[in-house]
């Protein structure tokens, strides 16, 4: 049973899907923070939220259960992504569901500013018929500057063009070709547009580059009377600069939907003339809320039930087709990681993964993560395909990847060299049939062995009688050998060799000591792997 926590008010349509989903139960708990939020997050497998909840490192402290956080909306700035990644939690969002509604809200703010609609309404309902005071500005023929030409910025541009405005845009990823196809003029910097525009609207995330995009210094550069709109994130405009600009007349109006600290019920801007503010309503339409809730709930259920990862902001995507194609390989990679950790013994500082054959044509980032999860699982609690690469890098372990499309003996194979502490080992694997993991290489030896359960690996000199002697040790201790594989150096006898036994049950210490005592045996190790068919929780 997957337990889902609904942390914010989301559309009923999303809850209806939860009600109808088998193996899912949910609770709606809004307004949580602090210790209550921390405790709640640890009782559920997934959660869905909007901007009203802050997921901090503290709220994830000690969390061992949560697997996915879904933002029913765009901005994931209220979720501490490094903390979520470290805990192995996928963070996903619904990037397009509220685009049009937010663009419409930004445009509504632009029109409200131009025609003094909120102030005129207030004056009228207070009993004044003041037509002279609320002389407005026509937007047709005026120039709008847009910073951030992503989904919302482009929708705002097309609405402005429909209102006969000229549009100048800045976005580091906007090309001249794209700009002319949309019908806007591209500029190379924000400063370049400031003296030319009558209105400015921003549609970027809050980043070090966009924080304080309009500050005191910009007030000298703007065309006097510039009206500024922000329906993106609080902090992109500096509030003190906005107040100064309004007082000096450098700014003709300010419209804000978003604030640096939300909820915000106290701002020096509130009540000033030519200021229009709304309490973060950009995405608050029935249409947008239905879309983000339905999409968000599907993302959450699909991830928890099938492992499909879409619209993740902290891990590579894994669509159902790729997941199906890679499932067997993820299993092999995870088992090879577990084997490599135990066979190497510690002090690892380098991991080089080589893919050969068909798998080399796929997006293998998630397979790398599966190997790393296995490699770290015995060292770090809860390593999984979301956090393992981050955990690896945090430990100073370098990861590299090579791909060769030509096939070897198998349609697809993965070979990993793990080095450090003066020792290098190699493990290689492949999938037989749909999902039968096989070990096909151990150090320099080729062999074919099951990759499950208990393995006893013994390195030895390739001389007659060794296999029989090892077999006798186990026979006398009443331990069954399920399968045995041997790989040796070159084709001729007499060199070094390696044996891999799949053992049923545990190996007592005295049996192990007897194998170690055989003269030609140079190294013996018992390796613990998941049983056949057993999958890690993130793959089952
Ligand atoms: N008020 C509200 O209720 C809502 C606010 N938003 C916010 O609106 C913003 C934009 O959302 P989308 O258009 O969906 O995102 P998007 O990712 O489609 O577009 C963002 C654009 O900003 C550009 N950008 C990033 N840094 C920039 C910089 N320094 N200068 C210029 N451009 C830069 C990117 O290249 C990208 O094209 C986000 O912050 C989002 O959180 C989104 C939905 C609702
Ligand atoms: O999607 C976004 O980025 C938003 O800002 C919308 O926020 P909300 O879901 O309305 O709290």
Beta content comes to 15-25%
User: What is the count of β-strands?
Assistant: 22
Specify the biggest β-sheet.
7 strands, parallel
Enumerate the spans where pLDDT stays under 50 for 5 or more consecutive residues: none
Query: Which structural category fits the helices and strands?
Result: alpha/beta
Description of the structure:
There is one protein chain. The protein is 32% helix and 24% strand. It is built from 17 helices and 22 strands. It has helices at 12-20, 34-41, 57-60, 81-86, 99-114, 117-125, 151-162, 176-182, 190-193, 216-219, 239-248, 286-306, 320-344, 365-376, 388-394, 466-476, 509-517; strands spanning 2-6, 24-28, 46-49, 68-71, 90-93, 143-147, 166-170, 185-186, 199-202, 226-230, 251-256, 275-277, 350-357, 398-404, 412-420, 423-432, 436-442, 445-450, 454-461, 481-488, 496-503, 521-528. It is elongated and about 110 Å long. The model has no long low-confidence stretch (mean pLDDT 94). Bound molecules: 1,4-dihydronicotinamide adenine dinucleotide and 2-oxo-3-(phosphonooxy)propanoic acid. It catalyses: (2R)-3-phosphoglycerate + NAD(+) = 3-phosphooxypyruvate + NADH + H(+); (R)-2-hydroxyglutarate + NAD(+) = 2-oxoglutarate + NADH + H(+). InterPro entries: ACT-like_dom_sf, ACT_dom, ASB_dom_sf, D-isomer_2_OHA_DH_cat_dom, D-isomer_DH_CS1, D-isomer_DH_NAD-bd, NAD(P)-bd_dom_sf, PGDH. Keywords: Amino-acid biosynthesis, NAD, Oxidoreductase, Serine biosynthesis. Catalyzes the reversible oxidation of 3-phospho-D-glycerate to 3-phosphonooxypyruvate, the first step of the phosphorylated L-serine biosynthesis pathway. Also catalyzes the reversible oxidation of 2-hydroxyglutarate to 2-oxoglutarate.
